[in-house]
C-alpha cells in the first residue's frame, strides 16, 4: 500500500513540473508574430488526442450493446 501511495505522489509531483513542449517547438511558436503556426499545432494536438478516445469509446459502446442484448434476449 505504501508503494502505491508513493508512486502516485511521485507521479503527481513529476507531472506538475514537466513541460508539454520541447525547447525548439516552444522557441519557434513563441517567436512568430501572427501565431498562426501555434494555432495549427494546437489544432493538430487536439485532433491527435480525440481519435483514441473515439476509438476506445466506440469499442466500449459496442461491447456494452452486445452484453445488453444478451441480457434482454
From TrEMBL:
Organism source for this protein? Gelidibacter salicanalis
Q: Which domain of life is it from?
A: Bacteria
Keywords from UniProt, A to Z, are:
Membrane, Signal, Transmembrane, Transmembrane helix
Which positions make up the signal peptide?
1-22
According to the record, the segments passing through the membrane are: 44-65
**Name the UniProt record assigns to this protein:** Uncharacterized protein
Amino acid at each position: 500500500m505504501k508503494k502505491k501511495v508513493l508512486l502516485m505522489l511521485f507521479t503527481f509531483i513529476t507531472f506538475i513540473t514537466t513541460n508539454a513542449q520541447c525547447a525548439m517547438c516552444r522557441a519557434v511558436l513563441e517567436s512568430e508574430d501572427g501565431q498562426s503556426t501555434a494555432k495549427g499545432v494546437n489544432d493538430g494536438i487536439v485532433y491527435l488526442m480525440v481519435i483514441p478516445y473515439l476509438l476506445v469509446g466506440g469499442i466500449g459502446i459496442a461491447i456494452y450493446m452486445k452484453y445488453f442484448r444478451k441480457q434482454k434476449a
